[in-house]
Amino acid sequence: MLDYHVHSNFSADCExxxxxxxxxxxxxxxxxxxxxxxxxxxxxxxxxxxxxNLLEYDDQIRQMQAKYGNRINIKKGIEIxxxxxxxxxxxxxxxxxxxxxxxxxxxxxxxxxxxxxKFFEDKTINEAYAKYYEELLFCTxxxxxxxxxxxxxxxxxxxxxxxxxxxxxITEIFxxxxxxxxxxxxxxxxFRYGLNTGMPSEDILRLYYSLGGxxxxxxSDSHRExxxxxxxxxAYNLLQRVGFQYITSFEDNKPSFQRxxxxxx
Length: 265
Ligand SMILES: [Zn+2]
Ligand SMILES: [Zn+2]
Description:
Blueprint: E1 2-6, H1 18-27, E2 32-39, H2 54-68, E3 73-81, H3 87-96, E4 101-105, E5 108-109, E6 112-113, H4 118-121, H5 125-142, E7 148-149, H6 155-158, H7 167-180, E8 183-187, H8 189-192, H9 202-210, E9 216-219, H10 232-242, E10 246-251, E11 254-259
Parallel strand pairs: 1-2, 2-3, 3-4, 4-7, 7-8, 8-9
Antiparallel strand pairs: 5-6, 10-11
Bound molecules: zinc ion (2 copies).
Protein name: Histidinol-phosphatase
InterPro entries: Histidinol_P_phosphatase_HisJ, PHP_dom, Pol/His_phosphatase_N, Pol/histidinol_Pase-like
Pfam families: PHP
């Protein structure tokens, strides 16, 4: 199994050192783990700063690879929180740094954060969802330094609504990213948060598949080692039911494909 969305104490909202997570990953038999710590420039909640020292991060990953590399593959990823007005800053970041894997997520929209609920305060649920996907569409049209889109229906974690009304906009997003050779992730933290589904939900996975999407990673979005690979068998089964035969791993932002059937336990 490969977990492609894992946080460490380089993320402002996580206290778990890489070492502890890697030991757990080896213990439960993961073949590969990709750290994807948070950079969210200009995060609207000023009590938290989602930035960290990238040289220290690089150094720490190398140390972990030297220490554990004979037992598990360790990849250097990142999760960036985009918004239309921040794309230039992320372009600059990507010009200066190399990552194996880049998750392009949207944790804020309309310059307000989803987590505190501020984003939803002045909008109906449909206005909120429309704004979210319009901004994400803009980002995919104007930014290409990423590997996959993260938790594509994160809006529903904070305010339950139907993403089905937004299949048209999401289709537009897929029609941009698929020819670019970019993918999406299936984030299993939705199961932990009581959504009873991963993110995105099955209807969106089906939409992606029907449009020819092939690149898909699976990540637990763990902030603690005990949620590594959470519900991965459920995720593999779900993907197979939709029609996917392969999941994706990345090195130096280049995809390679692993048969799902060989990963199920
Ligand atoms: Zn995220
Ligand atoms: Zn995350």
